[in-house]
């Protein structure tokens, strides 16, 4: 039996032949593609960031504590060269965080989780030049285990993922970039991951994954406050990003647990209230959302890139999801699903470049790169083409 869709297309083609109008069959064909780039073999391929204003991406491989320098083609952003450098005293140093400094343009912050150190490095101009360590910050006791590192307004921040040897507690570290003896350790829950600034209030928000809560820090008073994730929405707050304009505030994702996720992510704006959004498409309903990035464009309006990962549950897909919102960012208006080519790869981070988007496939030493031709993210398979009725109407 012919499906309705197929019949509609047949009718459209038949009418098209007579009326020779309606569909622009000569238009360039929209396409999207994912290229997987093989990195040096390692069991954990983690975080990456572009060195601002260059064609270089730095990537951490935690399991062997190697830093991979990737050179991009300046036009297409394709990977054209890579070289790998051991960081720390040996392969157990636990290189994890990678973040650009703005105080020192061109320099990058790295974290050595198992050496309890932060490094400021000059990555070097070419992919083959060895990075130079400019500064080492030893995390002071009782702090232990810097995981993700960020620089916010003249201060370097790190979420300390390991339980303190002295107090058995967890902390967030913050120090003045130009005077690192001026530091603060904020006691947190188990355990701090992403640290971001809400742009209107200047308040700092920290996701804490296992205790499923968000900590708010007022840096003017050093007071902290916990905002627990209501279990009815999900659990395990991990990824967080700052957004501006209509999206203004911090956005965060819930990764779920061993039984899967709830396809839920949230926002905190200048009023300090948590607001939750849930993916509507059945593909996203049980997804474990690990990380996200702003995807807003002038033409496309407010949007996010959100990563669903199989890291916590094999029931969650490894997928990149493009979510669009209405102009006021009160509801979701579109969801585009891009299934990652390597499933069960525990995808870890998403970082948009200028014209492509990169995703790290953690357990399979791969970086996936998404690119579009003759269309843009969010316009892929517009809903009006799915059941063919638009074609039928136009042809008629
Ligand atoms: C904590 O204790 C472990 C086990 O003794 C040790 O390997 C590690 O270096 C200590 N870390 C810190 C930051 O003191
Ligand atoms: C650096 O910070 C420490 C601790 O706050 C302070 O005592 C010291 O005066 C500062 N040094 C400079 C050069 O500002
Ligand atoms: C996992 O999360 C779900 C809700 O998202 C919750 O009902 C369940 O109790 C959690 N399981 C564990 C082991 O925490
Ligand atoms: C990806 O890595 C996981 C963990 O090592 C492994 O089980 C799986 O087979 C790998 N997938 C592919 C397609 O190689
Ligand atoms: C496609 O089908 C759905 C369900 O029948 C309908 O609501 C929707 O309007 C249709 N799309 C278009 C563009 O006609």
From TrEMBL:
SUPFAM superfamilies: YWTD domain
InterPro entries: WD40/YVTN_repeat-like_dom_sf
The organism's place on the tree of life at top rank: Eukaryota
Signal sequence range: 1-22
Protein keywords: Signal
Protein name: Methanethiol oxidase
Source organism per UniProt: Penicillium nalgiovense
Lineage per the UniProt record: Eukaryota, Fungi, Dikarya, Ascomycota, Pezizomycotina
């Amino acid at each position: 039996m012919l499906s309705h869709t197929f019949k509609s297309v047949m009718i459209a083609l038949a009418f098209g032949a007579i009326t020779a109008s309606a569909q622009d069959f000569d238009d360039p064909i929209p396409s999207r593609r994912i290229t997987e780039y093989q990195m040096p073999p390692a069991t954990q391929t983690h975080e990456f960031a572009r060195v601002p204003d260059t064609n270089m991406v730095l990537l951490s491989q935690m399991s062997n504590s190697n830093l991979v320098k990737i050179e991009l083609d300046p036009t297409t952003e394709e990977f054209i060269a890579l070289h790998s450098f051991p960081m720390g005293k040996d392969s157990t140093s636990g290189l994890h965080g990678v973040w650009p400094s703005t105080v020192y343009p061109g320099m990058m912050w790295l974290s050595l989780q198992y050496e309890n150190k932060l490094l400021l490095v000059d990555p070097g101009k070419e992919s083959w030049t060895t990075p130079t360590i400019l500064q080492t910050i030893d995390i002071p006791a009782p702090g232990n285990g810097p995981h993700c590192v960020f620089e916010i307004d003249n201060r370097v921040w790190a979420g300390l993922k390991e339980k303190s040897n002295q107090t058995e507690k967890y902390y967030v570290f913050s120090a003045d970039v130009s005077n690192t003896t001026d530091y603060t350790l904020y006691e947190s829950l188990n355990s701090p991951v992403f640290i971001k600034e809400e742009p209107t209030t200047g308040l700092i928000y920290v996701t804490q994954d296992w205790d499923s809560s968000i900590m708010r820090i007022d840096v003017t008073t050093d007071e902290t406050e916990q905002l627990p994730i209501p279990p009815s929405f999900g659990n395990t707050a991990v990824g967080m990003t700052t957004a501006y304009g209509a999206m203004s505030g911090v956005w965060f994702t819930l990764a779920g647990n061993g039984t899967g996720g709830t396809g839920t992510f949230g926002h905190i704006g200048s009023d300090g209230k948590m607001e939750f959004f849930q993916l509507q498409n059945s593909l996203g309903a049980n997804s474990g959302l690990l990380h996200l990035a702003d995807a807003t464009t002038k033409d496309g309006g407010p949007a996010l890139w959100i990563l669903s990962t199989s890291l916590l549950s094999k029931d969650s897909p490894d997928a990149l999801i493009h979510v669009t919102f209405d102009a006021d960012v009160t509801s979701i208006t579109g969801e585009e699903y891009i299934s990652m080519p390597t499933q069960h790869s525990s995808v870890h981070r998403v970082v948009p470049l200028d014209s492509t988007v990169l995703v790290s496939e953690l357990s399979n030493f791969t970086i996936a790169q998404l690119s579009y031709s003759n269309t843009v993210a969010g316009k892929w398979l517009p809903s009006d083409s799915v059941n063919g009725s638009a074609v039928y109407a136009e042809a008629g």
